[in-house]
Amino acid sequence: MQPNFNTLFTAMPDDSRVWLYLADRPMDKSEEEWFNAELGLFLNSWSAHNKQLQCDGVVLFAQYIVLVVNEGFEKASGCSIDSSTHFMKKAGTALNIDFFNRLFVMQAQNGNWLRVPYANVKNGSYLSPFVENLGDLKKQWFQS
Asked: Which residue from 62, 71, 93, 135 has the least number of CB within 10 angstroms?
């Protein structure tokens, strides 16, 4: 069954910019709760050129982090993007998780989502790491 991502970030326009981070392992419940609390603090302070960004984020499958910014409201600057990278690195260090190995994807296998090497995805369904905006995430993230 194809997942439906249309319910994600309904307050954001489809041209909103997206960043994806796949953890090297699933978070347990307490780690995910901690991460969500830290993510909320980060998102409430995320800004570009001293202007608050209209942004949101979510943890999916206890392992995939999606950050989104409505650049029609305020564009994410290089410094603001650096701050999100710093946040993800800091969270990864605190949780002993690597969010930056881009050689893996999430693949649907027997009704479960598993992190697998991208090079090994020959058949089957997976989440493409190449989406850049919310519209693509909703319509093209799931590849089969």
From this structure: 93
Tokens of 37: 């609390």
pLDDT category, 121, cuts 50, 70, 90? confident
Contact 80, 87 (CB under 8 A): no
| pTM greater than 0.90 | yes
- Contact call for residues 70 and 55 (beta carbons, < 8 A): yes
Q: Residue 125, class by beta-carbon neighbours within 10 Å (0-12 exposed, 13-18 middle, 19+ buried)? A: middle
Tens digits of per-residue pLDDT, 50-89? 999 999 999 999 999 999 999 998 999 999 999 999 999 9
Q: For residues 81 and 84, what is the distance between their CA atoms, to the nearest angstrom?
A: 5
